Amino acid sequence: MNAAEESQVLRWFEHALDQPASERFAWLDLQNLPPWLYQRVRRLVDAELKIDSAFLETAAPLPPAPAFPQVGERVGNYELLRELDAGGMGVVFLARRADKAYDQQVAIKLIRPLHLHAAPEFRRRLIARFENERALLARLDHRNVARILDGGSTPSGIPYLVMEYVAGASLLTYCDDHKVDVAGRLRLFRKVCDGVQEAHRHLIVHRDLKPENILVAADGEPRLLDFGIARTLEDAGDDSTATMLTAMTPAYASPEQVRRQPLTTSSDVYSLGVVLYQMLAGVLPYELRQLTPADAERLVCEITPAPLHAGLARAKLDDDERRHRKMQLAPDLDRIVAKAMHKDSARRYASAQELSDDLGRFLDGQPVLAHPDSAMYRVRKFVRRHRAISLTASVALTGILIAAGIAFWQAGAARRAAEDMRLINAFLLDVLQMSDPFDAGSELTLSQALDAAAERIDERFGGRPDLTAEIRFGIGYSMLSRYRIEAAERQLLRALEENKTEFGADDIRTLRALEGVAGLRQEQSRGDEAEALFQQAIAGIESAGLQADPLYVDVLGNLGNLYLIQERYPEADRMLQKALAAEKLRDEVVPLDHANLLSNLAHTAHGLEDYERADALYRQAQAAHEALFPNGNPDLAILLNNRALLAEDRGDQKAAFELHQQSLAVRRKVFGSEHPMIVVALANVARMSIGVGESALALSMAKEAAAMADRVYTSPASRHASIYGTLADARSASGDAAGAEEAWNHARDLLSKVTDAPPSVMKYLERVRTAICGRTPGQEALCVLGSTTGPGE
Question: With contact defined as beta carbons under 8 Å apart, do 80 and 141 qualify?
């Protein structure tokens, strides 16, 4: 096991040790970990009960673990008195000076000996982490930061740190035990901010702020502990320790920390916001315990937490305490917490000091700096948050404003245009108001918000087809991107007719709606109609001399993409090269559009078997997408899939498998739980799993893909048939001959309903049939009569 895998094992081991001892195995079972990772972590949890158990799974016996100091023994100049705490990486003991030179109690932290059996590189990093903690704490001298006193290694080689011993309770326990009211909690929290600010003043980011790492001494002064994963901003260029030993606590981690992005002091401000929320509401803003890592990441990075009052309502408090605390939770505290925990790091408090100062203003009865986001900021963020659903979905709301605004002002009626824009603004802000958790109690999804908007169009704009056409187009395009085909068809067809009636067939607004209907027909597997509509839109743009309009490049690119799907590679190449040339006519090239065009050109080169050109174009496109969307987007997911297919054709199966898994991870993140894009990725991972001998994983993925395909494909599709071909292959590989034949027959039934199945689907199903027959030659019905020579067979 290499160092990267080992660090992943130990990170999950730490999370398991955070659970009550009796619940650790049950918690682990709920985490949906890969089998190899689950087994390793389970062995470690079991080994925790007997510290001298083997750590690594290896055929050769491990060398003896270094002797671990016991209570009563000496470590350096100190005698161990009792164990104070234990985590995944280390154990902390209470100790005192053994030479009686003076009376002093300290806390001594030691690395667990079983970790010293780890891979050499990981062991080096772990020891470096201890040394890093000692070096960082040595720079700090503040009453709210626990001091480092000494450090070294035991005679058997176990590293240790000697720290100031804080005889006190954790932050939350102290507040609850002493019945501290809201004002008292805020004053105490401000002292925590002072300690964090001191670290930030020395360019140190703590990265694991949580109540358990903040102890309150008998004098009421809090002390920050455990700088084990802290690092300096001076060293931000080399974050290898961060990536290898990320022992953060997810419930308190900032969105950028969860996503493994570069951190600043703003990440600690977010964690302080979570701690403040918990101190005031009595619960964490998010409950992550039973979520998968992907769902936890989505919750932290995308969902706005409920207001403090809502959190307080679910806290385990007695009625008197809940009522007393509720009376003290003013709206300004909600605003302060929201600003500290803002998803956008640039909109948080600039420092822990600023957060503390705003709390001071609240305590003094002065106006606070925190205030709700402006309406227009919420509009932009609402659209940006859901942009990952599709490039086309990103115009669902802003496109309505922009396109309608341009059209109205071009009409020349300034006064009426201003009034129309006011109506549209009010309409959109009503929709956004429904999505605001501070008004609704929970955040609506994009689907819910836009569907609600669609239902209100006639009510709000009856008799104004000039207004409703653009609104319908924006909402219909978004529905199409979310594969709500029937709802999208209603809106897009009405938008096209209203535009024709109001503006004429050659108006750019009508041509844009025509392109939208072409995309609809493509999603409905009506390829001939889609092609004709795309060509009609291109002819209309060219005859009207509108080639400089951004729509021209879009339509050329979309027709090229249709040809790609149909595997008409020479035609696709010509159309995409034409789009690339037309792009130069734009006043400004849109980076995302250019990245997608490069990706499609790469796909074309792949189809033409120009592998070197395809690889170069894919790499350019991937770099462009990752620069624009560090956390992924649908186009990046597609690109990763296509790169995986290229790797397959070049014979690099390992790289292909990894790329397909990356594509699936991105698709799950950006498309939610149900979407054809996820189906495709599941099937690809299943198919690759068969090739590398992971039959159990293949069957699991194939079953999930087939079940989801049955739900999302509402009209005949060749992809639906190929999914069941994959399921048949997976069942065969796992030894289920009868199940394989059943899935294969269903694949043939589905394929018989498709009139234009691409050649690649036919070839794939034939390969699957050959593979199944090679494993189970006795299946005469499948192997003799099951050839897929045509869709109607």
Answer: no
Question: What pLDDT is recorded for position 246?
Answer: 40
Is 583:589 a contact under the CB 8 Å cutoff? Answer: yes
User: SS3 for 570-636, per residue?
Assistant: HHHHHHHHHHHHHHCCCCCCCHHHHHHHHHHHHHHHHHCCCHHHHHHHHHHHHHHHHHHCCCCCHHH
Q: How far apart are CA 574 and CA 559, in angstroms?
A: 11
| H helical segments located in 178-246 | 182-201, 240-244
Same domain, residue pair 19 and 135: yes
Distances (CA, A) of 138 to 78, 132, 352, 377, 636: 19, 10, 21, 43, 44
> Based on the domain organization, do 151 and 177 belong to the same domain?
no
204 bridge partner residues: 232
Q: What is the dihedral of CA 640, 644, 646, 652, to 10 degrees?
A: 140
* Domain ranges, residue 754: 673-793
Q: Which of 205, 204, 309, 195 is nearest to 254 (CA)?
A: 205
Give residue 672's identity as a one-letter amino acid code. G
Nearest alpha-carbon partner for 688 in 649, 648, 720: 648
Per the structure block, which two tokens stand in for 499?
A: 């535009």
For residues 231 and 204, the answer to whether their CB atoms sit within 8 Å is yes
User: Tens digit of pLDDT for each residue in 89-111?
Assistant: 667 888 888 877 777 788 888 87
Domain boundary (164, 180, 195) is at 164
Q: List, in sequence order, every residue forming a beta bridge with 690; answer none if it has no partner.
A: none
Alpha helices in 650-734, H assignment, sequence order: 653-671, 676-691, 695-712, 718-733
**Cα–Cα distance between 216 and 206 in angstroms, integer?**
18
- Are residues 235 and 153 both part of a single domain? no
Q: Which residue has the higher pLDDT, 416 or 214?
A: 214
Distance separating alpha carbons of residues 177 and 157, to the nearest angstrom: 40
> Which single residue is written with the structure tokens 């037309």?
582
Please name the residue that has the structure tokens 């590189």.
Answer: 121
CB 443 within 8 A of CB 303: yes
Residue 396 is predicted with a pLDDT of: 46
Candidates 687, 686, 663; CA nearest to 675 is 663
8 Å CB contact between 88 and 114: no
Alpha helix positions (H), 462-543: 465-481, 485-503, 508-523, 527-543
323 and 292, same domain (yes or no): yes
Query: Regarding beta strands 159-164 and 168-170, do their DSSP bridges make them parallel or antiparallel, or are they unpaired?
Result: unpaired
Handedness of CA 708, 714, 719, 725 (dihedral sign): positive
The pLDDT of 317-341, averaged and rounded, is 88
Sequence-distant (6+) residues with CB within 8 A of 727 are 686, 702, 703, 705, 706, 743, 747
Check residue 467 and give its pLDDT: 74
- pLDDT cut 70: percent of the chain above it: 71
Predicted confidence at residue 783, as pLDDT, reads 65
Query: Nearest-5° angle of CA 644, CA 645, CA 646?
Result: 90
**CB-based contact 533:514 (threshold 8 Å):** yes
Angle at 82 between CA 81 and CA 84, to 5 degrees: 130
- pLDDT at residue 401, as a whole number: 44
Averaged pLDDT, 25-53: 67
With vertex at residue 371, the alpha carbon angle to CA 251 and CA 253, rounded to the nearest 5 degrees, is: 15
Shared domain for 157 and 186, answered yes or no, is no
**What is the reported pTM?**
0.45
Number of domains in the chain: 3
What CA–CA distance (Å, rounded) separates 661 from 646?
15
